[in-house]
Amino acid sequence: SLQPVTLHVNGKRHRIEVDTRTTVLDALRENLGLKGSKKGCDHGQCGACTVLIEGRRTNACLSLAVMHDGDEITTIEGLGTPDKLHAMQASFLKHDGFQCGYCTSGQICSSVGMLAEVKMGMPSHVTPDLNAPGPLTDEEIRERMSGNLCRCSAYPNIVASIRQVAT
Ligand code: FES
Q1: Domain ranges of the chain
Q2: Do the Cβ atoms of 152 and 99 come closer than 8 Å?
Q3: DSSP codes of every residue in 97-154
Q4: Spacing, Cα 58 to ligand 1 middle (Å)
Q5: CATH architecture observed for domain 2-79
Q6: CA of 33 to the centre of ligand 1 (A)
Q7: Atom of ligand 1 at shortest distance to CA of 147?
Q8: What is the dihedral of CA 104, 105, 107, 113, to 10 degrees?
Q9: How far does the centroid of ligand 1 lie from the alpha carbon of residue 96, in Å?
């Protein structure tokens, strides 16, 4: 059944009607026409759909739109503009942090959310001994970004892009 939901996307308020099973990803792409967030696996495994919801990186394919009524969502379209790129967007350009580009929106949104997590002192769960004080190591960047896959395997340049913004 259709249900009204209000999403604040990139600073704009949208009142839409969605099926209760509609994901945030489909609401963004189909209802709002924001195609920057990509559908890779649609199962939470690739990270191509990553957006920021209330500042936290989220797999939009795993989140139901009705559960985010009133929430602030930032997509790749809202992080920066062609005239005024977000620092992370500029860094991905500078370091060639992509090849085909399909995973890039997710990589950039995820890395922005990841650096916010680091700033808040959120530990890296998989390998806790990586959480040494000091600048982020490449190893830690790789682990914290392990939810974002790149089929072209542009990982060295992705890590270099993120490292520049992190330091
Ligand atoms: Fe959401 Fe792959 S499309 S994680």
Answers
A1: 2-79, 87-166
A2: yes
A3: --SS-TTHHHHHHHHHHHHHHHHTTPPPSS-GGG--SSSPPHHHHHHHTTTS--TT--
A4: 10
A5: Roll (3.10)
A6: 18
A7: 4
A8: 160
A9: 23
What predicted TM-score, i.e. pTM, was given to this entire model? 0.95
Same CATH fold, 87-166 and 2-79? Answer: no
Pick the CATH number of 87-166 from 3.30.70.100, 3.30.565.10, 1.10.150.120, 1.10.10.10: 1.10.150.120
ipTM (interface pTM): 0.98
Q: Which residues of the chain have pLDDT under 50?
A: none
Residue 30: DSSP 8-state: I
Mutate to test the pocket of ligand 1, among 23, 38, 43 (most ligand atoms within 8 A of CB): 43
Nearest one of 150, 151, 148, 145 to 165, comparing CA atoms: 145
Q: What is the pLDDT of residues 53-65, one digit of tens each?
A: 999 999 999 999 9
